[in-house]
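SEQUENCE WITH STRUCTURE:
===
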Amino acid sequence: MLPSMRFYIISIVSIFIALGIGIFIGFTIDTQDFITEQKNIISEIVESQFETLITENKELKSNEEKLEFEIKYRDEYIDASYEYLIKDRLKGLNIGIIGTNEDYVTSGIGRDLELAGAKVTNVTTLNNIMINREDLNNLYKSLELNMPKNPVESTVTIITESIVNGKRNDILDDLERRGFIETIGNYEESVDYLIICGGSLTESSKRINQLDRHIVLTVKEHDIPILGVEKSNVNYSYISGYKDLGISTVDNVDMTIGKVAMILAIEGMGGNYGIKDTSESIIPHLYNSIQ
């Protein structure tokens, strides 16, 4: 008996299904082999990169140690040669120091100036209440003096002129008694040079315009050179403001290299020195200073 058409159809479908299953199994086996092979390749690449990173890290640590040694020896050299570099460069110069706020103490530079042969005539600190107009007006009123239109600017001008001319104004005593300023030294002797110390804990553009700007302008009117300085770690830098006023600057006077720059700048090598973005170079070229 001949098979029915249904039998042929079922047989053909079964053949195709078996063929499909065979193809799928073969493909799966090939794919697994491919994936396994790729995993092995990737593992080898990762291991190679990891070894490279370990080698580079060791090289970086080695270079870091070398740099640390270089910096250490450089600092030791600077400290050892510091006094020789600045000795007698400012001999006979009378210098006044004025700090425009009480946030950072920079009066310690007086020792460095004296090592260079200069005489620190006086040190003045303007306390933070110096910009309080109402308190200043009360002071003028209690002293029965005419209240100026701009008491902050007028008072800082009086202070600066007293320092520059060596004529102590009576109001300085009252300002100190009431905590507006602090003074050290002789105010009966004129100065040849003024150092203005800036930098503050908070942004103080208003304070710079009211105090520092008028100090610089007053000093320039008397044809006295002035240098703007600050420590390397101030929260808010005054250096850009000082540069706008057209004076030389040193932004790291708490560092030995900054102290050298300060002495050379006062000696006559004007410019903007230090470690911040506002500086032109770390220090004046010593070759030029020897000529």
Remarks:
- The CA atoms of residues 74 and 81 lie 11 Å apart.
